[in-house]
Amino acid sequence: MTQPLSIEQRRAEALRSLDLLAPLMLFMTAAMARLIMVVAVSYPGLDDPAFYLLVAENLAHGRGLVIDVLWNYQFPFDTVTHPSNEHWMPLASLLMAPLFAVFGSNFQLAQTQGALLGAALAPIAWRMTREVMEPLGSWRGYAAFAGALIAINPLLVYQSVSADSSTPFAISAAVALWWGAERANRSRGFALAAGLSAGLAYLARTEGLLLLGLLIGWVAWRAAPQVRWRQLALVALGGLAMTAPWWLRNLTAFGAAMPSSALALAMLPDYPAMFHYGPSGFWDAFPFPNVGEFLVLRLQGLGHNLTVLFVVAMFVVSLFAVVAAIRLRRSPVVTLGGTFGALLFFLTALVFPVPTQNGTFYHSVGAVLPVLAVAGASGLYRSTQILGQRLFRAPGFTGVMTCIAVTVLLGVQFALAVTASSDFHGGNKAYLLRAAEWLHEAGVAGPVMTTQPYSLRYASGLSTIALPAGDPPTTARQAAERYGARYIAGFGRFGRYPQALQGTPGFTEMLSERGLWIFRID
User: Would you place residue 2 in the very low, low, confident or very high pLDDT band (cuts 50, 70, 90)?
Assistant: First the structure.
């Protein structure tokens, strides 16, 4: 006859069941939040997602890695149609292409895939928290709070449904940090898997190469001497398995393994200079910043990254996370994740200040948010415990209520983000479709010079080239003549334009509607 379970045994069984259900519940909550955001984000908002969608469509249609857009003039392509990914990485498109091949090209389909992929970050944060906090005692409350911070985080929710590279990078990099922090030092399988994940992160965003280098250095420092070289080789092999085929492809297509010029990105004086056109090449009369501008840009980059980290990424919690990370520094996950976050923060701001002010750190910070949530859950609870003890003699109650209040605040931020995203994407869709309608009615066959080359290509189907927004109209005319563009379509003010075209001989204004403007090149 089976002996009845004791109270302790029943409690243990209940906790085991809860431990199995908690990650699933967090995933479902995160997926639901992201699917709600799908409704709000009705159209690709910027050039980045439009690029990934266009390349995925070309792959699905059997055209391969090609694009019918000149996004900038760093590479002297002879025609508008050329090999893609000279600047941005391929993973986001590679993930979407099989779905497009089977079900047809569809933005909502790509969003749904991103929503389900991005939802996996919440259970990853739960699992990370368990590994960090379990040796210290109580962990389930921390894990649930950390998972909730990720599940309804407005930044992560939005990025998941944007169809860009942020979510594939966040998932692959977070897994590499999780597996590489401790497991890779002692397990052959996890060493190889961590290297593969870091390599995948690089295929999503170039910052993944920084992660792969950090991971190799980490294993060299942390692995036991008797297995160090073996584990190092496995991590490097995993990374090379992902990166080497891509570098070979780039050598064939562009003549360089990593064709985008890091020097050009580092020396940009402003964002419009990214689209500089030099008749003799990109570097012709390139507008390098002076010493004062060079320093100011880097200070601005640091200010931008501080805003992203402490306001946009995880409002309220980030400050507590940074403080708690110092206390949890003995945890390999926190130390490795914090080191990667610090490198991302400072290198993007100090080396590439203009790109980071236009999205580099914003798009890559998701990789370290699970680690930030781990430290933030601990730091916020413990800090408010101390405050509660001093003020109310109720430390536990104060800590729990503060965590609940922060979760509610995140819910409010999420609701506001849904509304803001709906307004922005709806407005952007109206501008782009109106431009496409006008161009088709005017019988324009392309290419069209524009401030949003990928977005206008996605909306109109016309080939497009970038407006050299920091250059004078005479230079814009040279680029237009080289590639056969007869019209310039712009959205809002960008660099010198449209003011530089108004009243300039050889350019006739054809349309001006609430920020949309079109000029004919006579």
Answer: low
* Extended beta strands in 442-506, E state: 448-450, 464-466, 487-491
As a whole number of angstroms, the distance between CA 315 and CA 413 comes to 9
Q: Which residues contact 93 (CB under 8 A, 6 or more apart)?
A: 52, 53, 55, 56, 59, 65
pLDDT at 465 over 90: yes
Cβ-based neighbours of 352, under 8 Å, separated by 6 or more:
262, 265, 266, 301, 360
Do 495 and 276 contact (CB within 8 A), yes or no?
A: no
Whole-number pLDDT of residue 5: 63
Cα separation, 475 vs 520, whole angstroms: 15
- Express each pLDDT in 425-461 by its tens digit: 999 999 999 999 999 999 999 899 999 999 999 999 9
Q: Give me 404's structure tokens.
A: 């609940």
Count other C-beta atoms under 10 Å from residue 422's C-beta: 15
Distance CA 99, CA 416 (A): 31
Q: Is the predicted pLDDT of residue 348 greater than 80, yes or no?
A: yes
**Least confident among 117-121, 290-294, 296-300:** 290-294
Examine the pLDDT at 269 and tell me if it is beyond 60.
yes
What is d(CA 472, CA 281) in angstroms, rounded to the nearest whole number? 16
Nearest to 455 by CA among 485, 490, 482: 490
Average pLDDT over residues 481-508: 95
CA distances from 510 to 344, 494, 515, 520, 522 (A): 44, 18, 13, 7, 11
Q: Identify the pLDDT of residue 176.
A: 98
Q: What are 62's two structure tokens?
A: 């059997």
- CA 134 to CA 153: how far, in whole Å? 24
Distance CA 66, CA 45 (A): 22
Whether 194 contacts 176, CB under 8 Å: yes
**Which of these, 184, 187, 212, lies nearest to 198 by C-alpha position?**
212
Q: Which of 511, 515, 494, 513 is nearest to 444 (CA)?
A: 511
Look-up: residue for tokens 């368990």? 130
